[in-house]
Amino acid sequence: MNLAEYHPLFTDNLQVVNIELGAGCGNFGQIYYPECFITDMETKSKLDEICTNHFVTISCDARNIPCESNRFKNIIMCNPYGYGFKDRRDYTFLNELYRVSLNEANIIILTSGVNRFATPDKVKIRIKDYNLEHSTTRFMFDYQEIDSEKDYEGYNFFTTNRRKTFPKFKIALKCLKA
Amino acid sequence: MPESLTTQFQTDFQGLSLIDSSKKPEYERPFFNHLDSLNKYDLLFTKEKSSFQKTVKDKFSLSDYLGLEQFVMENTHLVEPTEMQAQEIDWNEIDNAKDFLQDKINKLLGHEQISQTLKPLIEFTIDSFENYAIYTYMHPKSTHNPWMSTHHLLLSGYMYLISDKEELVKEFHPTLYGQKNNQDENVGIITKAKKERKFKGVILDNRLTIQMLVLNYLKKIAPGYENPIPKKRILQHIEEKGITYSDSSFNTAVLLPLKRTLLIGSSSRGYYYMEDNDDFKTSYKFHQSKYAGIEFTMNIYKEGAASRGISL
Question: What CATH number belongs to B207-281?
Answer without folding.
Answer: 1.10.10.10
